[in-house]
């Protein structure tokens, strides 16, 4: 799933300081499955050159069946004061088997472009990446993505550290922005790590770990860059594989 601010009204100017919520509900538990959530004090800067929301979810695959699933959007633009905040978009739309919500959605002061990809008969993977040797160098940003073997061109961004360096805790575990992806049960899952100098915006090192889809279990793969090695852990859960479809 991707959410793009495709157009804004004349009363707004790029860049935008955006905060708010994008969430989904399905018939598995009817609870909000958070896809994007930012407070007013933690806005995302959206530019005309990069108009996509940095999604942090869903926390699990969203079930799609004959029963309706719902996606709700409530986004605001931060003003100089709270009273000057503006409603950017307020939407609720339905998704079910045979009804595909990808497209343009005008609302309030913007038009959003939503895109979804369906993964039928899927398994869900939770990704963990840990530094096991060496260290991440100062002045390097990192990008971690995942894709299925059948759609390697469609990469889900798990982390883009930007100019802030890689977020690594005391145990070497990298804090991903999102960690759940879905792949078809007969496919492979690819996890890519790229590193580049922050000041040059150029990829210096890259690596890939590949996992074969299984019904359940944990797999480890070592991924080596020039200055460090990482363990990539893939935990798969077999969920409703012949009863439900999922999108992510």
TrEMBL record:
Pfam families, alphabetized: DUF6598
Domain DUF6598: 2-232
InterPro entries: DUF6598, Thaumatin
Name recorded for this polypeptide: DUF6598 domain-containing protein
Organism encoding this protein: Triticum aestivum (Wheat)
Organism classification: Eukaryota, Viridiplantae, Streptophyta, Embryophyta, Tracheophyta
């Amino acid at each position: 799933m991707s959410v793009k601010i495709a157009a804004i009204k004349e009363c707004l100017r790029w860049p935008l300081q955006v905060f708010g919520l994008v969430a989904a509900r399905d018939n598995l538990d009817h609870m909000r499955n958070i896809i994007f959530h930012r407070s007013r004090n933690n806005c995302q800067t959206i530019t005309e050159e990069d108009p996509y929301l940095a999604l942090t979810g869903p926390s699990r695959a969203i079930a799609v069946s004959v029963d309706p699933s719902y996606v709700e959007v409530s986004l605001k633009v931060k003003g100089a004061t709270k009273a000057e905040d503006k409603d950017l978009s307020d939407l609720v739309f339905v998704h079910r088997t045979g009804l595909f919500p990808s497209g343009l959605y005008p609302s309030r002061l913007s038009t959003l472009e939503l895109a979804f990809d369906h993964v039928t008969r899927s398994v869900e993977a939770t990704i963990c990446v840990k530094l096991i040797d060496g260290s991440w160098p100062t002045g390097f940003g990192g990008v971690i993505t995942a894709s299925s073997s059948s759609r390697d061109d469609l990469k889900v961004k798990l982390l883009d550290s930007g100019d802030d360096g890689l977020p690594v805790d005391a145990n070497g575990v990298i804090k991903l922005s999102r960690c759940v992806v879905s792949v078809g049960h007969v496919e492979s899952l690819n996890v890519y790590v790229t590193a580049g100098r922050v000041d040059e915006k150029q990829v210096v090192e890259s690596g890939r770990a590949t996992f074969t889809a299984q019904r359940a279990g944990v797999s480890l793969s070592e991924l080596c860059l020039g200055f460090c090695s990482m363990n990539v852990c893939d935990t798969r859960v077999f969920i409703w594989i012949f009863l439900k479809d999922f999108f992510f």
